[in-house]
Amino acid sequence: MRTPSPNAPLLSTSSTPRFEFQDGHELVADSLSKAQRSDLMARVRGKGNESTEVKVQLRLQEAGIRGWRKHPSTVPGHPDFYFPRLRLAVFVDGCFWHSCPRCGRLPKSRRTFWARKIEGNRRRDETTRRALRRRGYQTLRIWEHEVANDRWMSRLRRVLEEVHRKEDAARRTFAGEAATD
């Protein structure tokens, strides 16, 4: 951490102290107590990786893929896209927040904090995926960096086709059994 220049003047006459460092950077003291800041930050609720989700949503619509819902509260983990008929949960994960093996990285500052935070996210993702699989759901993860190309769409189509094939086979089996009765 930088230390203020010994003869650094207060830059402002406001009630919030400001210090100038020798390298020209400025430090501003927080006007809230640690407890107040913590309470304020705890109330911040993200809405997901909206720009990436919107891109995926637009591509699904352009491709004519229907039958999905966004963030259903009845499905564990509240997947970004859920195909109820197929029991397919699709998660669109940000590379930073979910520790993408290809491009996830830790910031240079507060590495311990971020390592714990991101590892917690990664563990929660794995726990959610396992819980969904145990309950008979299929899962698909789309990484943020994958949205730029259409490989994710090919993977999704393969999963959709596989589920449809299984449904058709089950229907044929049922129809065959019903016809022989």
If you had to describe this structure to a student in words, what would you say it looks like?
This protein is α+β, with helices and mostly antiparallel strands. It folds into 2 domains: 1-44, no CATH class; 50-180, 3-Layer(aba) Sandwich (Endonuclease, Chain A), CATH 3.40.960. Helices cover 42% and strands 12% of the residues. The protein is built from 4 helices and 5 strands; from the N terminus they run ββααββαβα. The protein has helices at 34-42, 50-62, 111-134, 151-180; strands at 18-20, 26-28, 81-83, 88-93, 138-143. The strands form 2 sheets. Strands 3-4-5 form a 3-stranded mixed sheet, sandwiched between helices. It has a two-stranded antiparallel sheet with strand order 1-2. A hairpin with a 4-residue loop joins strand 3 (81-83) and strand 4. The protein is elongated, with a radius of gyration of 25 Å.
Summarize the structure.
This protein is an alpha+beta fold. It has four helices and five strands; from the N terminus they run ββααββαβα. The protein has helices at about 35-40, 50-60, 110-135, 150-180, and strands at about 20, 25-30, 80-85, 90-95, 140-145.
Question: Helix proportion of residues, in percent?
Answer: 40-55%
Outline the biggest β-sheet.
Answer: 3 strands, mixed
| Class from secondary-structure proportions | alpha+beta
Write down the overall mean pLDDT. 81
Helix tally equals 4
β-sheet strand percentage: 5-15%
Whole-Å distance between the termini?
80 Å
Supply Rg.
25 Å
The ordered H/E elements are EEHHEEHEH
Please name the CATH topology of the largest domain: Endonuclease, Chain A
> Strand order across the biggest sheet?
3-4-5
CATH superfamily of the largest domain: VSR Endonuclease
